Amino acid sequence: MHRVLGGLLMGTLAAVSAVGCVSRGPRGESGPLRISEVERQGDGARRASTRLVLSGLDFDVESESGRALSEYERAIQIDPTNPFAYLAVARFYADLFLPGRSLEYLDQAELLLESQGLSSPRVEAHLAGLRGLAHLATGRFREAETLLGRARKLAPSVWSDARLSPDELR
After folding, report:
1. What residue ranges do the domains of the chain occupy?
2. What global pTM score does this model have?
C-alpha cells in the first residue's frame, strides 16, 4: 500500500515540481535555513537538543529511520521548545507520506518559531514546502501546488524537486 501510494505521490510531485521550477529566490537570499547553522544557539538544553536533531538527520540520510526518530524524540524531551526538532520530525513524517503526523509537528514548529521570533523567509520555505507535501499526500493538489510554488520561490536550490531531504535540512 505504501509503495503504491508512494509511487503515485512521486509521479504527482514530479508534475507539480515541473511547474515553475525556474523561479528565483528574492534578491539577497542567503539560502534556506539549515539546522547546523543554529547548533550553537540557545542555552545548554537547546544546544544539546539541536545536536540530537543533527544526529537524527545523519541517521535519516543513512536510511536508519528508527534511530533517526529516536534521536528526534530525545531532542524534544531535552528541549520541548526547540522548533527545529519539530521541523525535523515533520520532514521525517512527510518523507513517509504520513501527512497527519507531519502536520502535527509542523504546526508545533511554526508556533514555536513565531513565538521565539525565529520566523524568516529562510525557514518559511520549509514550512510552506512541508505543508504542501502534506496537502499533496491528502489529494489537495491545488493547495499543494500553491505551497510548493512558494517554497520553490523562497528556496529554489532545495525545493525545485518538491522534496526536503535530510541533507538539505541538516
Report:
1. 32-162
2. 0.83
Q: How far is C-alpha 117 from the geometric centre of its chain's CA atoms?
A: 18
Does residue 11 or residue 90 have the better pLDDT? Answer: 90
Copy the grid coordinates of residue 83: 522548533
Q: How far apart are CA 2 and CA 167, in angstroms?
A: 23
The H helix count followed by the E strand count for the chain is 9, 0
Q: How far apart are CA 115 and CA 31, in angstroms?
A: 23
Distance CA 94, CA 70 (A): 17
pLDDT tens for 43-60 read 999 999 999 999 999 999
CATH 1.25.40.10 is right for the domain spanning 32-162: yes
Gap between the Cα atoms of 33 and 2, Å rounded: 30
Q: Are 71 and 56 in contact (CB under 8 A)?
A: yes
